[in-house]
Amino acid sequence: MAKEIKPLVYGTGSLKGISQKTIEIHYGKLYAGYVNKFNEIREKLKELAVSGKFEGNQTYSQLRGLRSGENFAHNGTYLHENYFSILGGDGIPKGDIVKDLGERYGSFEQFVAWFSACGMAARGWAVLCWNMNEKTFFIYGCDAQDHGGVWGCIPIIALDVYEHSYFIDTGSDRATYVEAFFDNLNWSKIDELYQKAKKYTL
Question: What is the pLDDT of residue 148?
Answer without folding.
Answer: 82
